[in-house]
Amino acid sequence: MQKDLPSGWFNVRLGDVLNLKYGKGLVKLDRDSTGKIPVFGSSGIVGYHFEPLITVPCLIIGRKGSVGKVYFSKTPCWPIDTTYYVFPNPIFDIDFLYYLLSSIRLTRYDTSTAVPSLIRKEVHDIIIRVLPMNEQKRIVSKIKKLFSQLEINKKALQKVKHHLVKYRYSLLQYTFDGKFNRTILTKNQNPLEFVTFGSLVEKSQLGLVRSIIQQKEYGGTLYLKMNNITSDGQISLEKIVYVDVSQEDLKKFNLCKGDLLFNTRNSFELVGKTAVWNNELQPVVFNNNIMRIQFKKGIQSKFINYYMMSNIFRDSLRSSKKATTNVCAIYQKDLFSKLIPIVSEKDQNRIVSFLDNNFSLILKNEKLMDQLLTQIPKLQSTIFKKTFEGKLVSQDPNDEPAKLLLEKIKNAN
Fold first, then answer.
1. 38 found inside a domain
2. What is the secondary structure of 38-54 as a DSSP string?
């Protein structure tokens, strides 16, 4: 209600002060990529062209695809037909209007059942708040400072995450390149000896074939797929699916503690991921794009897994990757011919314990960085909330009321 608003504010239907216009199609083949005019789609800049559709600063809103995303083009641009564009009404500072539209979370107004889509009438019917122009400018100044600090914090957290990833691989490199392992190994232990991977294997087996149609969200037996093996050697149970399995297949494909899982087919970059199954859940069967490997007595699967995670081993795999158009594979004969370092079982355990402890600390810190990063959008939402409650900056009784400015603009026209 108007009476609950700070002095000088008023509520208005969005469509009464702003008009969402449809972008114009410009397919990739018709664009001149040597041009410097940004072409905006619903996900942001999708290319460049030599001439603009819009010659003045405007806001672009995702209409289909990335629904509700708001972009601010300060230069001439071309919004394509998956977007709306908006010219600011003189009652708005354009930076303020960008923050206002961003705060609405237009993704809530997606009315489609298939392709995400934003209906113009739905947006036009939204009630928004109009503020005195001077207060808008104070808010913009404040938000820019706060968002700038949040961006600095975000980059700092991402940098820490990047360093943690580098530290993980540096530890593996240092452990297995013959330098650092001297401080871990038992006294008088010989340096790492290399043998073929296949000579360490007791048993290997590809997993159970189940088509997408046979997979379901619940009911049946858990079915571990390649997406459940992470790039950093962990098992992720997110998005795990279920399949129906006979007792015979369950006995044959049920995962056992200590199984090394090797991703045999994937993209070029992801094929060759590994992890060790630690009985996270039971029973669980595994997909045919995963090879289960069990080692001979005295060989620690976690020791082998750590080596296979190292860049030393991953670089050696690159030459064995057999790629087609969409899929890359590593075959058993190529994997089994690779050289693997081996030490006594006691020293394998010492190395595993050392890496477990360090990786546990790294993982703990990575989770902390992720938690802190998730706070940034929440803080931005809090800033917007305070803005439109009139609590971000102080009101000035000398500010010209927004309604008076609107009347002046109407009279001038």
1. yes
2. EEEETTEEEEEESS-SB
Q: State the pLDDT at residue 186.
A: 57
CB-CB contact of 39 with 49 (8 Å): yes
pLDDT in tens, 40-88: 999 999 999 999 999 999 999 999 988 889 999 999 999 999 999 999 8
pTM for this prediction? 0.79
In 136-231, which ranges are E strands?
193-196, 201-206, 221-224
Domain boundary among 279, 314, 339: 339
- Residue whose C-alpha is closest to residue 404's, from 83, 10, 36, 27: 10
Residue 34 lies in a domain: yes
Whole-Å CA distances, 138 to 133, 183, 374? 9, 60, 27
CB atoms within 10 A of CB 94: 18
Together in a domain, 200 and 328 = yes
CATH at residue 108 = 3.90.220.20
List beta partners, residue 323.
328
Handedness of CA 55, 59, 65, 69 (dihedral sign): positive
The dihedral through the CA atoms of 31, 37, 40, 46 has a sign that is: positive
108-125 pLDDT, tens digit per residue, is: 776 665 677 899 999 999
Do 305 and 210 share a domain, yes or no?
yes
Q: Quote the radius of gyration of the chain (alpha carbons, Å).
A: 29
* Sign of the alpha-carbon torsion through 171, 175, 179, 181: positive
Q: Is the dihedral of CA 34, 35, 37, 41 positive or negative?
A: negative
> Would residue 43 count as lying in a domain?
yes
Single-letter amino acid code for the residue at 43: S
Contact indicator for 11, 129 with CB cutoff of 8 Å: yes
Closest to 59 (Cα-Cα) out of 46, 72, 40, 69: 72
Domain that holds residue 20: 10-131+408-412
Q: In total, how many domains does the chain have?
A: 2
How do 37-41 and 78-79 pair as beta strands?
Answer: parallel
Residue spans of the chain under pLDDT 70: 1-3, 110-114, 178-192, 325, 412-413
In single-letter form, the type of residue at position 322 comes to: K
